[in-house]
Amino acid sequence: MSAEPSVSPSRVGVWLIGARGSVATTAVAGCAAVTAGLHPPTGMVTETGVFQDAGLPPLSSLVFGGHDVVDCPLPKRAEALAAGGVLPHDLPSAVGAELEAAEREIRIGGPLRGDTRSEDELVEDLARDIRDFVRRGALDRAVVVNVASTEPVPEGDALPASSLYAAAALRAGCPYVNFTPSAGLHHPRLAPQATASGLPYAGRDGKTGQTLLRSVLGPMFAQRALAVRAWSGTNLLGGGDGAALADPAAAAAKNAGKERALADTLGTVPEGETHIDDVPSLGDWKTAWDHIAFDGFLGTRMVLQTTWQGCDSALAAPLILDLARLVARAHEAGLSGPLSELGFYFKDPVGDGPAALGEQYAALVDLAGRLRTAGDAEDPGPGDVKGPAGEHR
Amino acid sequence: MSAEPSVSPSRVGVWLIGARGSVATTAVAGCAAVTAGLHPPTGMVTETGVFQDAGLPPLSSLVFGGHDVVDCPLPKRAEALAAGGVLPHDLPSAVGAELEAAEREIRIGGPLRGDTRSEDELVEDLARDIRDFVRRGALDRAVVVNVASTEPVPEGDALPASSLYAAAALRAGCPYVNFTPSAGLHHPRLAPQATASGLPYAGRDGKTGQTLLRSVLGPMFAQRALAVRAWSGTNLLGGGDGAALADPAAAAAKNAGKERALADTLGTVPEGETHIDDVPSLGDWKTAWDHIAFDGFLGTRMVLQTTWQGCDSALAAPLILDLARLVARAHEAGLSGPLSELGFYFKDPVGDGPAALGEQYAALVDLAGRLRTAGDAEDPGPGDVKGPAGEHR
Amino acid sequence: MSAEPSVSPSRVGVWLIGARGSVATTAVAGCAAVTAGLHPPTGMVTETGVFQDAGLPPLSSLVFGGHDVVDCPLPKRAEALAAGGVLPHDLPSAVGAELEAAEREIRIGGPLRGDTRSEDELVEDLARDIRDFVRRGALDRAVVVNVASTEPVPEGDALPASSLYAAAALRAGCPYVNFTPSAGLHHPRLAPQATASGLPYAGRDGKTGQTLLRSVLGPMFAQRALAVRAWSGTNLLGGGDGAALADPAAAAAKNAGKERALADTLGTVPEGETHIDDVPSLGDWKTAWDHIAFDGFLGTRMVLQTTWQGCDSALAAPLILDLARLVARAHEAGLSGPLSELGFYFKDPVGDGPAALGEQYAALVDLAGRLRTAGDAEDPGPGDVKGPAGEHR
Amino acid sequence: MSAEPSVSPSRVGVWLIGARGSVATTAVAGCAAVTAGLHPPTGMVTETGVFQDAGLPPLSSLVFGGHDVVDCPLPKRAEALAAGGVLPHDLPSAVGAELEAAEREIRIGGPLRGDTRSEDELVEDLARDIRDFVRRGALDRAVVVNVASTEPVPEGDALPASSLYAAAALRAGCPYVNFTPSAGLHHPRLAPQATASGLPYAGRDGKTGQTLLRSVLGPMFAQRALAVRAWSGTNLLGGGDGAALADPAAAAAKNAGKERALADTLGTVPEGETHIDDVPSLGDWKTAWDHIAFDGFLGTRMVLQTTWQGCDSALAAPLILDLARLVARAHEAGLSGPLSELGFYFKDPVGDGPAALGEQYAALVDLAGRLRTAGDAEDPGPGDVKGPAGEHR
């Protein structure tokens, strides 16, 4: 903790689970590009006026590392993304040094095929990687962010991989963000540890496209007292996500979040299904079509259709940077437990909070105000787990 | 003013400018249908829990009349709307008595072709019609609501028809609502009278379809810091509205409101045009296509398209009933001047208020709270114009 | 066979399998309405100039009957369709007599729940119903048309219901049309009888919406040498069809036809899935969204999207009348075997023919020419099965 | 004329009016890329099996040059197109030599601002440029292709620029193709010269997107006897085309072709307008939305909507190569006058031919057959205008 931030600014680690994926690669490359002034910070809410003076760590202070089980190096992955139009063509070479630096901080994750380590051994190994990252970088703190492929809904009592990583984050004393629909810290067996850790955490399942739209359209229908009869949707996407979600169990995990978000904003569960199709030729681009049949006055039948054509990595990456900064600052300010004020970012937010995007934005603005006035907590530093602590409200 | 509302409930007049149009006909027929329990109050925000105990006049207390310059009787117009699918087939006969009753309270408007009356004579004649309506019905008060076809943007100093009606409302001591983009009370020459009247008023240009959507999508882009490059739109509509808006001057009036709403919610004025096409075969149904080109992180190009297929009359009518009740109650409670809390209903709201639908809804909920606790103002009764009064906040 | 058609016009039976369904009801009501001059023959290709003088039986000569296993009478079903907007509101009463007449000619189909009859007994019972219909009406011939709900793809050797009806048609000496994706005459065990019967037949799976579109868009891409990468689609529909197709086995049968049509017109099998969702609130209305990702010159990625909002019954019914007339006339003219010239009407046409709609239309026009010049075959009359006959080309 | 094509293959010039525009640049770069095997010939109909052995000049024999009035060199223009995603990123450098070669063959067009040359002097200067090109390259022949920006509909008797170029083509003895809606050879004053020249010509207004779609959808509705009530459309496009068409007079020229194509394929002129909006941020990408309201059986209202997102240059360029090859071969084979068999490529085809794309394709296939069997005409060589010749059929 630096008493003189202007002299020795804090350095904040961002430890990415799935560190060689599209989202992580775009976040690392984009952070470097914005820091260097090559691109404006489009899509980053923390760079808008609302967060001025909120004490967020500057983009230039972020240090990246993470776990992954694939071995395509980050610079090469960035080239592939540029070829697919996700990154500007010349960006990978322009930020090559930063990609190389992050690549050097990536460690092999787990469990691996045929892994014989116990749960506890695995968690310890993963936590050690994180602690080493913090020590090597002389970081003030690190935030662990899950951006790995969606897991199937877990069956049985064993911790799925996403929960092992979450447990490792707690053990390493790091705040945790789950940007995916996977279990992560949500697993019932981790609840006592999450509470005992006194760490802030956020999640889950980033709201980047179809659900973002639904979180403004649902309230519109509800506030206007229009009766939604059926809400149907189809998502077409390629890339790793498309393939992962072609697994019905993973798609079920994803869809559960989508449906919850819809029911929460609408107040009812309408008819209709939501499909997720793997269409490899679309690459990292996603198309989401929604068809909403609703009744107006005297039962008149009406229809709204939306088609969203977006690039999930480019939508997610700035939110990852936002979340890392916000959760790092929340940690610094002594907040702990579920950060329900970050519901703006998630399909299935932790804690109790509103479901309509407008109200979620208002809660985020409130948080910015609180962070502005908060001092720095007496921070025991990463690696030393705090004793039990109450929720932050 | 009744001290014992349960014994002698107040009767509230709704005086419609354009009383034989689609919107007016649907409002009259729908009010009767909902009162009789034939249909649920879909689309009426004032029938949701938020307005419980806010002292709004019950639907059964509303009495309809108005001005029009066409002479197709209301029951016949209702039959035509039922044939076009806007009203349920059997509704015109089911609420025939109420349609007949309203028809008897419709008077010829003005100015007529070749009319030689002075502005003041016209206003006086129109005001007399309204006062007679209130007297005949022994009404506690009446709200004047403009639902006539859109006028061209006025040139010169003369009051356009919509402003003559607005002036008549003031002279008759009635609160005024402008649901159209026409000038109405907005005309600069009426400003002193509006202030002096001490009457509450609301407007303008009801937000029923494309702009309703834009008022939730615009804030979504702004809050997520996504850069909207171009927002283009095409509206296809038939019916009277389609023909009226085929007049470029009327379309210009309409589009000004649309564009202002977009700029207000988005914070910038993006590229792109908005077309309004007269497509007679669509009848009272409207299709609005919007194409929004926006940039994500690192300049990635993305697109959202929406297609809204709605029936404007069925969208507008419940809002007319809402507004009549809200403004009548505001009058009763002693509010005066521009009711900016009703921005939820309008493209181009009077007063200062937020542009995002979510915030407008919050303001409406606040108003409900204030009305709940407000007593009844010492109401001098309709017809007697109050002395000058300050704004209500 | 009448030598003097003007004196004693031939009467042609149309025996509908699924006679109380939406399509059948619309066909019966619509035939009466067009005959009475209440509506133009929109959607009937046989009423265009191409078929003038082709000897088709006039609409006024068609007599309806059929099998069904539900017992809602035709006039009542017509009322329900009118309430749902599929039929004009006043049509059921205007053609009440014709609906009653058809209702009197509907017999219970089979097999029924717990039916103990053998396959042969069932076919005989069904065939007897058809023969009785022909005799009672003194009909020159009857065409059997399957418009029942889609069956699951049959497993095992037993004839599914649709094939029992097809066998009954053959046994009764009647030409057969399969407007559904069910097996019908397509079952391998029926092939020898179909050939031996010398009867003309047509099918299968009427091309009414999404596939109709695909049959013009597929050739467009192929002719322009544009490389289709992925063709994805979602169908939303309610009504009986939606529920039947919510059964994955029935949907599989339906989709097989859709995919075959696409592959045939496109020349390749692109990526992408086609979904069929049951959305009860849409009633008899169907919405089909297609998303086609294709490459242009130098690999440039482009997209075409289509949204079709149609009423399947209103699209299918005029084609049923077309097919009944065409197949009756083909029978009269002595044609036998698969009528590949009717591929214009089907997703998965019998015989060998082109897949592009334009070429299919040309083949239909050719058929009209041949029918124009054909005499009347020496028709042995219905009920007497012809000996083996060669294909008609 | 080479008797031994394998020894000394003919070299064919392609003289582009608008030689530094997007379409021309894409055509030159793409021809080189396909010749070099860098890309498949997607979008080139002349590279499909149908044209095998039709004697078309190989792509490697095409030599490019042309007129333009802007001075941004071709290689630089190619870089800009690559930055906008129209060309693959690495293509401009890969085909740099070919772009340079074409750039050297581009001459300043006319009339220039303040030009004092007479019509005849201008035509002579332009024709001299073309003749010089043929002589310098020792070309067997050259085809002049207009791909310049759309001109306003000409008023008065003076030849517009596009017609001056067309006259120059005739004077230089070159076949002519008009890929734009501008007047070109269509000007009444050029008709006698066109006939007298004995040269083949084709046009006008390339069918690349919305009208391509309409040319298959229109016949679909017509063939199915479905009654189209209204056909509305909006085109959004940036680039030079968007700006040029923001001029209402140019847009009128463009729309005239679109409407003619629609009326021709549909057989009627439905309600509805077509808008062309300049949206600079879309660059060379075009989005076209069509909304088609049609009636089915018994007047049931249905709707088809299409959204086409394409890159006009990438759609047009392969057609330019097709047309240059086809018209060069037609010239070689002695065809003259309007090549109505090329209606497949145009919104407003010369000569009499079918309007439905499928029939136009069949006509094109017929032409391929005729070219296959045609010998080489006694070709007087470019530069020497033939005497009057009859039409080629």
Automatic annotation (TrEMBL), chains A, B, C, D:
InterPro entries: Myo-inos-1-P_Synthase (IPR002587), Myo-inos-1-P_Synthase_GAPDH (IPR013021), NAD(P)-bd_dom_sf (IPR036291)
Domain Myo-inositol-1-phosphate synthase GAPDH-like: 209-313
GO biological process, one term: inositol biosynthetic process
GO molecular function, one term: inositol-3-phosphate synthase activity
Domain of life, source organism: Bacteria
Gene3D superfamilies: Dihydrodipicolinate Reductase, domain 2, NAD(P)-binding Rossmann-like Domain
Protein name per Swiss-Prot or TrEMBL: Myo-inositol-1-phosphate synthase
Native source organism of the sequence: Streptomyces apricus
Positions of region (Disordered): 373-393
Family: Belongs to the myo-inositol 1-phosphate synthase family.
